Queue: 2 jobs
Job 1
Amino acid sequence: MKIVQGNMIGSGLRFAIIASRFNELITSKLIEGAKDALTRHDVRHQDIDVYWTPGAWEQPVVAKELALSGKYDAIITLGAVIRGDTSHHEYVAGEAAKGLALVGLEHRIPVAFGILTTDNLEQALARSGSKAGNKGADAALAALETANLLREVRKDRGADA
Ligand code: INI
């Protein structure tokens, strides 16, 4: 039986973080969580770049361009879509999720989904560094593990890394 998994060693890997200015109170904390998680796993500060978008809606097109650049081993998307009085937030969250999933598949690069989708600000605060952890850190670690897993899978296939 063969078990293949990605290790959690970040040295030499390069990451792009895409973060929304919308709900920056939350997203700034997600960025801190993501950066902390990566550097604790030996990713160098200079190998982490942060790109700001106006909102979650704009993230897929930026992710696509970054994937095309070939500069990164993984992309980490961070945002907070909080339910409002209208259905606007549903379109924003749904299209961001669809678009980001497409970028990962088309460009064969891990695109971690660290966009919170919550009913209220309290739930978002709980997930950005308080009682429910920090989803920015979780997304960063998922990106790191998947980047290393893809390396293993490509090695197995004899494909270029
Ligand atoms: N963008 C977010 O990142 N989170 C939200 O909660 C949100 N809501 O609810 O409106 C939001 N809207 C802005 C959107 O991402 C675009 O920036 C805007 O529609 C302009 O294209």
Job 2
Amino acid sequence: MRLTSLLSILARRGRVVLALGGLALLTGCNFNFWRMDGHQSTIDVNGPVAKSQLEVFYATCWVTFVIFVLVASVLAYATLKFRARSEADEHAEPPEQGHGNPLIELSLIGASILALVIIAVPTLKSIGYTYDVPAEEKANAYEVNATGYQWWFKFEYPNEQIKDTGPLVTANELVIPAGRPVRINLRGMDVIHSFWVPKLAGKVDMIPNRGNFLWLKADAPGYFWGQCAEYCGDSHAVMRFRVIALGPKEFNDWLNQQTAPAREVAKVAATDQPKAQFAAYRTDWKTNEKGWTKEFDLNPLDGWRAQQFPDTKHEDAALIAKGRGLFQSKTCFSCHVVRGHMVGGSGAYPDLTHIGTRTTIAAGVLENSSEQLARWISHPDRVKPGNKMYVTGYIPNNIKLTPDDVSALVAYLHSLK
Ligand code: CUA
């Protein structure tokens, strides 16, 4: 084939590709593939640790890109220059084959070593930097313990000791001070999990009986998506969490609110009838159905901020009291701590003292709305197959909840701010 005809075919195809692309744009085709700032992007970094790891990625990309261009150019040159130009060429014997050219072989070995050295320098630098909080920042570092359970994350604040109780404990949403290094001690309670907040730091395993740690820093206040990154059983893929970074004052306010006991709206003894008549929540949820609204995704940090305050206008004290009673009678309290409300619970299950202030439930899988909380309480197995609330809680204890029970429990849990 003549070179000119080859080029004209390429030009025609190029126009088709352009036209299809334009059409896709006009029809509002979603080009998410090209977006680099998704929730779990490692390219859109928001802290020095993730940035250092991204630099290693780019160094490797550039080296391999140069190798690709060199090899592809030689290949293209040889393909065009030595192509068969006639029938006779096509059937000709191959020319005499040569082998053993010390100059070429030594230069290729040298070039390979050079490429590896170019990658090794930023790699070693980054390994040193990301390993632990830099010495000059140690004094300013904040410490948190994170423990992986099947399938949720427990966060402990060893610096915030609550009288007669121990350290502040939360679940699935890790609130940290922005602009300060945070050293996170990592443990696994049952199997190996892995702690990963792509925009802030690369993953480190959470291993039973072995202390691991990592450090990270958020440059500015923000809301970041995290994910367990080590296969850990049925619901590994839905073992998520969030990191919320706050400025100094806001972080302090948050600590004060969280270390306080659960908010009191109504005691169990209330005899009033609930005023609010809830429309029944949906019950036909399917496994893997989305638990998320787009509105929340647009501005999650402001969503989180709004979630910190009680909705006193719409609260129904009698319904909350009913929910509080059910939380006891249905034995929820024997696993979950609600500090200040009832004695019970264990550290092996999510602490619910301030569950109303979290933006997510079920380890970051569902938005913490009334509808999604009702879905989680009524069908935990459809959200997280194999989860302990269902398998070792609901089934052996024969826990059954009517739609009214679910409404009351939702009202109670959401009052816990
Ligand atoms: Cu925990 Cu995967």
